[in-house]
Amino acid sequence: MIRIKELRQEKDFSQIQLAKQFDITQQTISNYESGVREPSITTLKNLADFFNVSIDYLLERTNIPEPVGVLGRKDDYEEGLPEEARRQIESFKEFIKQKYG
């Protein structure tokens, strides 16, 4: 099953409001929620981003809702590190941006 209904209700959205957000019909949302129809990978990604959860959480493959952090965000991974380590992280991020960006 899929957690769209649960997440939609947590945000206090109706099916119609969620459908408008994604430019799809209310019936499509209803079909996703009832399991009649499965969302595409792109739709799953967009829904996960909208609800700020991982796709695995959306698909009930995990009970951990938070998406995995990515480098570039100031996430908890830097907490508790000495200043020198933080500078090295920033330096490495700049190196990656220059090389691949």
Automatic annotation (TrEMBL):
Matches recorded under InterPro entries: Cro/C1-type_HTH, Lambda_DNA-bd_dom_sf
Record-annotated HTH cro/C1-type domain positions: 4-58
Chain segments annotated as coiled-coil in the UniProt record: none
One annotated GO molecular function: DNA binding
SUPFAM superfamilies linked to this entry: lambda repressor-like DNA-binding domains
Keywords linked to the UniProt accession: DNA-binding
PANTHER family in the record: HTH-TYPE TRANSCRIPTIONAL REGULATOR XRE (PTHR46558:SF11), TRACRIPTIONAL REGULATORY PROTEIN-RELATED-RELATED (PTHR46558)
Protein name, per record: Transcriptional regulator, XRE family
Organism listed in the record: Alkaliphilus metalliredigens (strain QYMF)
